[in-house]
Amino acid sequence: FCALYAVLNAMQILHGISPSQARELFNVVLLRVSRDEKAFRSILQHTIDYVDFVDASLALFSRAYPMTVKAPFSAGTDCASVWSSLKEYARPDKKRTAVFRFVRYAALRTTPMADHWSTAREMDERGLHLFDCSLEPKGLYYLARNAMVEKAGLLHQDCYVIPPESVRLLSLD
Length: 173
Description:
- The chain has helices spanning 2-15, 19-34, 37-44, 50-61, 79-89; strands at 68-70, 96-105, 114-123, 128-131, 142-143, 159-161, 168-171.
- A hairpin with an 8-residue loop joins strand 2 (96-105) and strand 3.
- Helix content is 35%, strand content 21%.
- The two termini are 28 Å apart.
- It is of the alpha+beta class and 173 residues long.
- Helix 1 (2-15) crosses helix 2.
- The relative contact order is 0.21.
- Strands 1, 2, 3, 4, 5, 6 and 7 form a seven-stranded antiparallel sheet that branches.
């Protein structure tokens, strides 16, 4: 449910919702999708189109919590453009954030070690810090710009790919 958690984390940044409000919103989405067995199975079996799921969750939540949602990128957009937008939107002080998917690769591997949705918290000299629910000891809690690549391959360093079409830029302006 990391895609849904990412959306809920964004709601905390934008609207300051409490954990109990986030739990209620989580329950609303699960109850709604559970009415359609095929859709619910696709979530449980990780075959759902998560971009559509994120968009539907954002649309549902925006009824009670207004926000501006932009999907500015298509597949093939260069890393520099994606990074620049994430940097602009990783601004909780301005009520801006981003929800996006990243795929993490270990050095010299072409199969992903993680495929995860997260929320942009803030940017500093180390990189993009994530607002994330994951508590994994080897979890990734910030993304360094120099590890972001357009496409995974047999690289000599760990890297990650952010599919540009997954990026949702959120704001209250």
